[in-house]
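Lab notebook, bench 4. Still working through the backlog of constructs that have no structural model yet. Next entry is a single chain of 325 residues. Request: give me the structure tokens for it.
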Amino acid sequence: MRVTLFKRMLRSRILRSSVTLFLLAYALSQFKLDQFREVNWQYLILLLSASLVVASVVALGAARWLLVVRVLTLKISPCSALQWTMIGHFFNQAFPSTMGGDAVRGFLAARESGDLPGIVNSIALDRLIGLIALLALIAFGQPILIGRLNDTSLSQVVLILEVVSFFGLLTLFVLHKIVAKSLPDGLKRVIQRAFMDARRLVASPHLLVPALLLSFAVHGTNLALITIIANQLGASVSFLDGLLILPTLLLVASLPISIGGWGVREAGLAVGFTAIGQPSSVAVATSIIVGLANLVSAIPGAALWTLTLRTDHGNRDTARSGDIT
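Model written out:
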């Protein structure tokens, strides 16, 4: 069984790596080195500034998760929430999108709180709040973008996706009790706990509303960052342009189909910039800087992860010496 699981994980890793390399190759084919031949202080300052902004976004994400944790009355301190979110951000750079980071974050949080189902639900609800805010931005920007592109087929695709998503969520909430009756008791309790926690969150608007506002702040900061970098590199992108194309890009880049969002982010931004009449080469350069900023901002998370491993190792050594004596 372990061999089969390992083979599945290996195939999945190979598939995502292939997607990443393929999309990166496409994006880099749009890249022109003429305006970036001379690496100067401007690009270094741009990278360091972007890294600080990404780090602030990670901190905002930790604050949003902490609000959900408070609703579910889980025992996690603000310092721990920030530390584990930073470690999760580090793992997100090497694993498919947010999945690897969320798994590590959940593992560390469950060790302290002792409530694994509650931690899993808190992370799922945290991601759901972020997704709702992102979909709201997409719903606002897509009609304007479709009108600008004058593409009725795109309008039909967006409408179909919205209808399917709405009825999918409606079916999930209406039929979950019926479906749960045919499931094993353990899985049934997990599902019931998940919906109970979701209802508790909805019934706590004093925490839900700030969490949604934090989500808009996270996405707005990312949109502003990409727009500013693109303009610094020679594009002419307004904040409205960014609002039209970037939320969809952020949604696609968060899907677990590539490693750390690489490839998907570059190709998506190149297509989006082309749609609004901006150079695809600037889009790729912008995306590369954002990707490198994510890597630089993940360094503190790597240091915290190393410190966590050393602490655990020291605790085990102490326990063993105590057993011997």
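Notes after review: The CA atoms of residues 270 and 280 lie 5 Å apart. Residues 19-32+63-149+205-311 form one domain. Flag for follow-up if needed.
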